[in-house]
Amino acid sequence: MDFFDEVGPAALGSRLRRLTDTMTSQAAEVYDLYHLPFEPRWFPVFCTVAQEPGRHVGDIAERIGQTHAAVSQVVKDLAKHDLVVVQRGEADQRRSVVALSEKGAALWPALQQQTADVRQATEALLAETRHNLWLAIEEMEYALSRQSLGSRVKALRDERVTDEVRLLDYTPAHQPDFKRLNVEWIERYFRVEAADLKALDYPDEYILQRGGRILLAEYGGQVVGTCALLKMDDTSYELAKMAVSPTAQGLGIGFQLGQAAITQARALGARRLYLESNTKLKPALSLYHKLGFRKTVAGQPSPYERCNIQMELLLTS
């Protein structure tokens, strides 16, 4: 079985590269047919310069949808073969403008004729196919501009992970995991403080017996995430000790734990959730904002040196 038949659309990019390689190879044959000393990859840049001389490299890149670096390299190659000239712009001496050289201008009419013939041949080729590839590419580019392939894959992966994650209630057997996960992230950015060790070494005494809760997330048979609700008063809880293993970050597990903690806080009668964090923890703050938390200045002084931001979420029934 052919590799692409076996893998299917998952190898779309590789399949397109194979088609690109085929088209590029056959395009080189066309240039030989017309006796034009020209490389196919030069065509978009050269054609743009011929039609709109005096453009900056950045303008050309934007015009043909390529990177500035890629266009700069092609311009260097064209200049090396004496097909274009590069000069400082009159309006802005810091930017270079590109125009055809005498040799490039002499080549342009023959290239235009070849382009017309290639277009006619390509239109006939497209007419032979069941699906018009040119129109399909336009549709694909539009769809990817609306939502990238990476974000589409992430959404599907997160949905799958959500189904595979198990949220667990804390038991004494989970204390080592609870401490490990929290110490792991604290030591990555700060230092473990005495207030941390009280709750991490004795969670029953400092969290559960005082009316709090601890949640854990299990994925792939391992405890990879945790968070706690610390009771502040009859209607307020602190969301604390949230940690996700580096091996499981980016899978949406922190968001699942946060949502579960909010649901449990409501069930406990909470009307307000409070948390403390640090502004250097950008992903964590992004998560808290996604969960609905907002910055507050109404909190009490924190027992933690690392705390420099306090947030709250007002709960409604």
UniProtKB/TrEMBL annotation:
Residues 176-316 form the N-acetyltransferase domain. InterPro entries: Acyl_CoA_acyltransferase (IPR016181), Bact_Acetyltransf (IPR050832), GNAT_dom (IPR000182), HTH_MarR-typ (IPR000835), Tscrpt_reg_MarR-type_CS (IPR023187), WH-like_DNA-bd_sf (IPR036388), WH_DNA-bd_sf (IPR036390). Residues 9-149 form the HTH marR-type domain. SUPFAM superfamilies: Acyl-CoA N-acyltransferases (Nat), Winged helix' DNA-binding domain. SMART domains: HTH_MARR. The keyword Iron does not apply. Keywords: Acyltransferase, DNA-binding, Transcription, Transcription regulation, Transferase. It comes from the Bacteria. It holds the Pfam family MarR_2. GO terms for molecular function: acyltransferase activity, transferring groups other than amino-acyl groups; DNA binding; DNA-binding transcription factor activity. PANTHER family: AMINOALKYLPHOSPHONATE N-ACETYLTRANSFERASE-RELATED (PTHR43877:SF2), AMINOALKYLPHOSPHONATE N-ACETYLTRANSFERASE-RELATED-RELATED (PTHR43877). This is Bifunctional helix-turn-helix transcriptional regulator/GNAT family N-acetyltransferase. It comes from Hymenobacter setariae.
